[in-house]
Amino acid sequence: MSTQELALAIGNAIEKEQFESAIEQVDTLRPIDVADILAEIPPALAWRLLDRLPNRATVFSYLDTDAQGLLARAFPRANLARVVGEMPSDERTDLYKHLDQEQKDALLPALAQAKREEIRKLAAYQEGTAGALMSADYATLEPNMNVATALATLRVEAPDAETIYHAYVIDSERKLLGVVSLRALILAAPHTLMHSLMISAPVHCQVDDDQEDVAKTVARYDLIALPITDHHGALVGIVTHDDAMDVASDEATDDFHKSGGVTSIVGKLKDASIGVLYRKRVFWLVLLVFGNLFSGAGIAHFEDIIAANLVLVFFLPLLVDSGGNAGSQSATLMVRALATGDVVMRDWFSLLGKEALVALCLGATMAVAVSAIGYMRGDEVVALVLAMSMMSVVMIGCVVGMSLPFVLNKLGFDPASASAPLITSVCDASGVIIYLFIASRFLALG
């Protein structure tokens, strides 16, 4: 049975108040699959089933923020507070930030004092920083604890912690001293003290670090969770591996959209409105319309040589597209390398020389192919013009495609903005001018 069919059957059961039947149909499903079903059911019915599930907070967490917001509006305040109170602190805060002010004012008084203060604290951090991404649910130990006491402490803290595979050793002022793994605790002798077992000076980030840097740190050191400290070195939260990978996925999607000339993430494509898709795409398209006027100006300037040698028109799309394609390849490689930290600004000069040699080889190969066609369509002079033009446009395309991400990065812009449409437009204009200029030097006006 498909998700839609199952959602319809469960919705009918809820309408008839056959809740036991509805719960039986989802009882063997994983939480994320239950969330997919609930997303297909009207919120007024979905909350009545969700509220009766033993793993309701987990299922609710798997819904996207829009679906959570719709369900939050349908939930009675007391029921919503119960579900929200069971959620991990970071997901609880994300939901809170997506509620309207009326919903926030209704939810907060229904939560326990500690959870209210926690939400206010986490929601205060700027979006896109480690503080906005972190969770306050983590396990801590004291440096003078022995292993037996530490394990007993973890048993108490485990139900509320995001992970206990790593516990963080802090002093009386909550300064981060070290980290100890659950594996190390299990293997150590019961009398071993934490300060001798822990890994001192653990990898960590600060609350105002960019979330993309946090994700890179988690990936680089292959961490289950990354501790986050304030400017005084006090532990204030952790970022788990799954949250870091969500950030990496969102950043990759954002870069992918920008490389296609879409200004930012549009969310789920199937749910995006016509207006949203229009606004996200129109800027680059209109800008590049005016950019392409340079190609037209180049053609107008050399219209006499074109009129005298109409064979040039046949090869014009081939040449300018080749430069654009080569430039897009180079830009894609550089944007990704800059995003992953594989290259930095000081690598530009060495990479420029390497890219120029690669472009020379690519251009020469493509020149041989196109000159043969040029000889068949024209003569040896046309073949020479095509060969020289191909090598030139490919060389310029590769160099521009490689350099533009560096230039944008240096100016403080996102390198992903060196999108394929932008590179293509630059290479088209330069390709037209180069091709027709070379033709004007070798071919007569008739």
Describe this structure in words.
The chain is of the alpha/beta class and 446 residues long. Helix content is 66%, strand content 6%. The protein is built from 23 helices and seven strands. It has helices at 3-15, 19-26, 31-39, 43-50, 56-62, 65-74, 77-86, 89-98, 101-107, 113-123, 130-133, 147-157, 182-187, 194-197, 211-221, 241-259, 274-291, 293-301, 303-308, 311-340, 348-377, 380-410, 420-442, and strands at residues 140-141, 166-170, 176-181, 199-200, 205-206, 225-229, 235-240. The strands form two sheets. The protein has a four-stranded mixed β-sheet with strand order 1-2-3-4. The chain has a three-stranded mixed β-sheet with strand order 5-6-7. Helix 1 crosses helix 3 and helix 3 packs across helix 5. The radius of gyration is 30 Å and the shape is elongated. The N and C termini lie far apart (73 Å). The mean pLDDT is 85.
